[in-house]
Write a structure and sequence with these properties.
two-stranded antiparallel sheet, mainly alpha, about 190 residues, 7 helices, 3 helical TM bundles of succinate and fumarate reductases
Length: about 190
């Protein structure tokens, strides 16, 4: 068994390396092995392009022009804008706004005695009470809208965490429901006296 395998391999190698005489297209007789025949270049292939030297400033301009013609990857114009385009980033933005406001006011409240600021509850209530009714409602609406949006959209995210409502139709419906409930909740909280 081993002898037949060795014999077959030896025959294959000798056949592969055997010199074969071929007639070149120019009429010259030459010898070549079958593997070297694959390396003969056809005379009709076009010459390599000529490379030219470019100054550094010119190459910069060329690169800038090429980059301006490239699309953003993935190109944003191929997507159809849906409600989820707005609700997903707004959920993150409202979370940052709410927590940032809390941290800033908390820090200001803690350092107010050092600087002599009056940020105690009585002063803030008196300042807010002196505003006209329209300004009070507008201020409460501006404060309540991010809160209600973040809470209602957070419930939507909790529903998604259970693995439900992942169809496109359900996501669009949920997005519009979140916006409607957020505005309604903000109006309700703003008009409470």
């Amino acid at each position: 068994m081993l002898l037949s395998r060795v014999t077959r391999t030896a025959l294959r190698v000798s056949r592969r390396d055997a010199q074969i005489f071929r007639l070149h297209p120019d009429g010259v007789l030459f010898s070549a092995s079958p593997t070297s025949l694959l390396q003969i270049k056809n005379m009709s292939t076009p010459p390599k392009p000529h490379l030219s030297l470019v100054k550094a400033t010119e190459s910069n301009h060329v690169l800038i022009r090429q980059r301006l013609n490239r699309p953003v990857s993935p190109h944003l114009t191929i997507y159809r804008m849906s409600i989820n385009y707005f609700t997903s980033p707004m959920h993150r933005i409202t979370g940052v706004l709410l927590s940032g406001t809390l941290y800033c006011f908390g820090t200001a409240y803690l350092i107010s005695p050092i600087f002599g600021w009056h940020l105690d509850s009585a002063t803030i209530a008196a300042a807010f009470g002196s505003l006209p009714v329209a300004a009070k409602v507008a201020a409460k609406f501006v404060m309540a809208l991010p809160l209600t949006f973040h809470c209602v959209n957070g419930v939507g995210h909790l529903i998604w965490d259970t693995g439900r409502r992942f169809s496109t139709k359900a996501i669009v419906r949920q997005g519009w429901t979140v916006i409607g409930l957020s505005v309604a909740g903000a109006v309700y909280l703003a008009t409470m006296i």
